[in-house]
Here is the input.
Amino acid sequence: MTVSPTSRIAADLLPEALEPIVRQRVRGAGQAEIENWRPAAQGFSTETYLFDLVGVDDGDDDSVGLVFRRPPERPVLPDFDLRRQYLTMDRLRTSDVPVPTMRWIDAHGTDLGTPYFVMDRIDDTVTVSDMPPYHQAGIFADADAAGRAELWNGCVDVIASLRAVDPVARRLGFLDLRVFGSSAPQRLAGFLRHAVGWASGSTAPRQEFIDALDWLDGHLYEPEYVGLCWGDSRMSNVLYSKEFDVVAALDWEIAYLGDPAGDLAWMLTTDWISSPFPDHARAPGTPSTEETLDRYRRRTGLRLDHMRFAHVTAALLLAVPLLRLNEILDLGDVDLAEICIERLDHVFGDGLV
Here is the structure.
């Protein structure tokens, strides 16, 4: 198949186009074939497919499980750059942060008309789901109180493990949001103003979002520590063993350099939004907010003095893809981002710090 570098290959034609490429890229795969091509179960931010490469002549196993990722046709995040997430995971591969093994990237779209990368698939794992909410169905809901705490704390410990990552030594400076300000909090606030405006399209952002952005500008601070932030730090982005041990952390599309409080606030915010119970209560056994922050403090030595700022940024960051999905899914009068305004009301009204 001949591919124009400006064309986007239809999803059902990707296996045929990719097969000769993987035969060249994977050792012992000269005669291998792609089988079991299927879309990943969830995720709007990056188009993702799982597949088996069968007939590999390399060692004992003649089949290799791989993952293919490319930019979505209609992005839900501004300035989408597939290379950022690839490099982030690739440069963490020898760290204590568990990530999949990267195979290769075509950052210019030469092979398939769009950028893409391929990484190893990690099998024999479990994870929680976003839909239906994990408090209601799936391994988290089905676990006992101790199991829920183990799943939750495993994600917290991944976030804590980022404290040991040296962004300079790992060559992660490309994640710095320096174009948006002079300090890490100002840069994140500036990026969010840009992102909310982008996601709102031709419609002016709702006043509640503008007020929250203005609040951020009026509450900038000097962070205790600036380091790698995962960005999408939630249990549904963690692969666990069947014994609930952490195996890998996925989805680094919105990784950035900033105050690590942002990752904890994101986990707490997405959990609050996921809960189907009255007042967004958690299922029994789920550690509380204070227990979560205390666990992180013990593992990192950081104080987390500016959690309200982090909670506001998390609500705004989540609003960005939801605002975009409003348009992409054409939901009429339904506003997916309304839940983010409810979260902002909760942050300010209940005095979360």
